[in-house]
Amino acid sequence: MARKGRTRKPSFCWSVKGLLSERLTGNSYLDSILDGILERISDGEIGKSELSSLQSILLKLLNHFDNLENILQLNHFNQILSMMQGSSRTIINLRILSIAIRNTFVRDPTTIQFLFEVSRSLHDSIDLSNIKDKENNRSAHLISRFIHMVDYGSECERHLAFLVQCRGAFGSMSEVKETVVHSSNLLAIKSRRNDISCVIFVKSCIACSEVTIPSIPSHLKQLNLYLETAEVALMAGLVSPSDGLVDSALRCLNNVDLLEGSRMPKDIDGFQSVLCKFCSLIVMIPGDIERGVTSIPRNMFSILSSLSWMLPSMKVKVLCALILTFAALSQNNLLYHSIHDEVMGNDSLFYGDQQYMQELLSFSAVILQSLIDTVLQEPIQAASGNLALDACNAIASSFEACEGASDICSKLVETAKLSLVSDNKYLQSTIKFLNSRELVQGEGLKKQENNLLCESVV
């Protein structure tokens, strides 16, 4: 007589085999399959092979629907996902976020919370000892993109609370923290109104950014974010917080080191771009009478002079920007102002103040001398010629025609002539510009221009 045995449940793989082979069109069929999956994994009947099969099933579902709203409507999907682990869970999380970021915005609170949990699971799975791994970088990018897409509409406080939550949840991802700062600043701009409650909220946004920035490892990125946040503060009429952020930016500038152990600086263009942005911001910041109206550019110049790793080519670009900044500040009507009515520009604060103009001119002379000295320090001959022309154009754009400016420009052109061929287009255009500005010594430079033009035609 045959011995009766217990009825054995079909294996997990065989139970779901139909889902892999059928077209996913019947919701009732899907529901029954997902019910069965949840029942089995709830009983603890899932091993490595079953986990691999489950990964394939969920990927098939995600690829089929390719729409987050439809996916979230599936029975038990969230519960099944929460029971997955290891690399299989990571693969599914990456796929979910890849689908989600195809949208322009994410506004549904339930969807936002779901994606936040997916992102947190992805973040927690990262191996901190290998944080620069490509897969980890991809995870950071997807999470950053999700945070950027979140939009709570008029519920600004709720949005800010979400950003604060993200700052705490994704602390090991520098890119995500940068996104939190950008999003917080954008939120402050969107909420800007004239009522006092908005001012309080904007201060909260700025505080969120200010607390987050120091945790970002790159000093160059910190510098850029401090300047961005300072600009937002100015737009809201918050002069004092803006001054504090600028001071933080200056301290950060002192710590920037583009060498980072290498022989040549890295990200030179990015550094120069940030410093030019800094110079542009200086034009909008009201001068401090107690510290001196040139206190910010003076501190900036002092720090730049102390950075031993700065190449002459980099320093010339920044000094040219400072020269142009002082030219802008010396105008009776500034080129641009803060959009907030309560933030007065220097053209209003120091209108007709001769001491203000004298301070600008005095420090301009210091920068001008440093600019000339730096051009002469460039060891590469061709580069020296181009730097001389850069300096010449900045000076010609900033100073009225006078004997001193004419002498300097003439000497810089002579320096360029020693390094560049006579038909160099940059050299020719610079000489033409000097003539239009009447920054020439007698007829010598004008004749020189004519000779160069003749040579280029020949």
UniProtKB/TrEMBL annotation:
Entry GO terms, CC: cytosol; endosome; retromer, cargo-selective complex
Compartments in which it is found: Endosome
Pfam families, A to Z: Vps35
Entry keyword Kinase: no
Location (main, coarse): other
UniProt cross-references to InterPro entries, sorted A to Z: Vps35, VPS35L
Listed GO biological process terms: endocytic recycling; protein transport; retrograde transport, endosome to Golgi
Keywords annotated in UniProt: Endosome, Protein transport, Transport
Family stated for the protein in its record: Belongs to the VPS35L family.
PANTHER family per record: ESOPHAGEAL CANCER ASSOCIATED PROTEIN, VPS35 ENDOSOMAL PROTEIN-SORTING FACTOR-LIKE
Protein's UniProt name: UPF0505 protein C16orf62 homolog
Protein's organism: Nicotiana sylvestris (Wood tobacco)
